[in-house]
């Protein structure tokens, strides 16, 4: 229990190599407090995208609804259902399989919340612990618009493809968050 608590508190300051070595000693569960154990895969739900204007593009509800299952499509070497530590390390030359921490298992659009809802599984103990303890609160969806329409001074993203989910500190959609 002492080792697990120390790892949780120090994980932000430990480089990636040491995290992997230290976490491998935990062996499957992290005792957080008392008898509570964090089991892997850690399952979470999130609101990943809402209709609105983000980074200069307008995302309409109908376009989000049409694209809801594109997260499960594959394109060449990429599997879109990946969950990554962050957008910065994903799909670039410096990226590694170590950046993949889980996968999206369910996707749907909730018309009452007006939100693209995802369920995911996390296999990384340090990331799962941070989600569980509320240190990771936000998600971001990598989106590729197939087409951009210009109307009334706005850019409308059309034919959306959802490429991956990442954990972030400041999402483009300020309401994209992990649900407790």
Question: What's the shape?
Answer: globular
Mean pLDDT: 80
Q: What is the count of helical runs?
A: 4
Report how far the terminal alpha carbons are from each other: 24 Å
Structural class: alpha+beta
Q: How would you spell out the order of helices and strands?
A: HHEEEEEHEEEEEHEEE
- Total tally of structural domains: 2
The proportion of residues forming helix, as a percent range, comes to 10-25%
Describe this structure in words.
- This protein is of the alpha+beta class.
- The chain folds into two domains: 1-39, no CATH class; 42-179, no CATH class.
- The protein is built from four helices and 13 strands.
- The strands form three sheets. Strands 3, 4, 5, 8, 9, 10, 11, 12 and 13 form a nine-stranded mixed sheet that branches. The protein has a two-stranded antiparallel ribbon with strand order 1-2.
- A hairpin with a 2-residue loop joins β11 and β12.
- The longest helix is centred in the N-terminal third of the chain and has 9 residues, at 2-10.
- Residues 9-27 and 30-35 have low confidence and may be disordered.
Features:
180 residues; alpha+beta; 2 domains; 9-stranded mixed sheet; two-stranded antiparallel sheet; 4 helices; globular
Task: Indicate the topology.
Elements: H1 2-10, H2 16-24, E1 29-33, E2 36-39, E3 42-49, E4 52-54, E5 57-59, H3 61-66, E6 74-75, E7 78-79, E8 82-84, E9 100-110, E10 115-122, H4 125-132, E11 138-151, E12 154-168, E13 177-179
Parallel strand pairs: 5-12, 8-12
Antiparallel strand pairs: 1-2, 3-10, 3-13, 4-5, 6-7, 8-9, 9-10, 11-12
């Amino acid at each position: 229990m002492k080792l697990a608590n120390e790892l949780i508190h120090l994980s932000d300051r430990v480089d990636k190599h040491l995290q992997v070595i230290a976490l491998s000693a935990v062996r499957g569960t992290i005792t957080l407090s008392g008898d509570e154990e964090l089991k892997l895969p850690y399952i979470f739900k999130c609101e990943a995208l809402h209709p609105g204007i983000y980074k200069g593009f307008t995302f309409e509800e109908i376009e989000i609804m049409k694209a809801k299952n594109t997260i499960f499509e594959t394109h060449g070497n990429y599997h879109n259902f990946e969950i990554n530590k962050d957008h910065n390390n994903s799909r670039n030359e410096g990226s590694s399989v170590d950046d993949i921490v889980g996968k999206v298992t369910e996707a749907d659009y909730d018309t009452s919340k007006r939100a693209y809802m995802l369920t995911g599984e996390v296999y990384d103990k340090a990331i799962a612990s941070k989600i569980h303890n509320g240190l990771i609160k936000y998600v971001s969806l990598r989106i590729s618009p197939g087409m951009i329409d210009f109307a009334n001074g706005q850019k409308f993203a059309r034919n959306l493809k959802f490429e991956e989910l990442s954990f972030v500190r400041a999402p483009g959609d300020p309401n994209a968050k992990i649900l407790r």
